[in-house]
């Protein structure tokens, strides 16, 4: 009895399909965070307060819209994907430093996962997109 069978290349997603799925997933899920901040000024105030706690001006909080609105839309459309991924990676690293640094080595009491698994998953996806590029399925060449 054969336990493992071979899979024809036609039976699986192409690399370009996989890149599209990754771009759409990361882009859409991060975009929701940006939309939330647009609709809830208190969330933007929270980000501004995090900058102030580090001795930086609260106005820097508006940069979150580049990382959570502009960059995700760039990823979704495939426009300048590596730049978009770089912007999003910077946004994620800044968020971890400003807000989540104390949780860096923490296991979450809810479910036992890493306390920053969402941020780290977004960062891993973003870095994969940065390395892989947009693929052929995009609105802009």
SSE arrangement:
Blueprint: H1 15-39, H2 41-53, H3 64-77, H4 81-100, H5 117-132
Helix pairs in contact: 1-2, 1-3, 1-5, 3-4, 4-5
Word description of this protein:
By secondary structure, the protein is mainly alpha-helical. Helices cover 62% and strands 0% of the residues. The protein contains 5 helices and no strands. It has helices spanning 15-39, 41-53, 64-77, 81-100, 117-132. Helix 1 (15-39) crosses helix 2. It is globular, with a radius of gyration of 18 Å. The chain starts with 14 loop residues before the first helix and ends in a 9-residue tail after the last helix. The mean pLDDT is 92.
Note the main attributes of this structure.
single chain, mainly alpha, 5 helices, globular
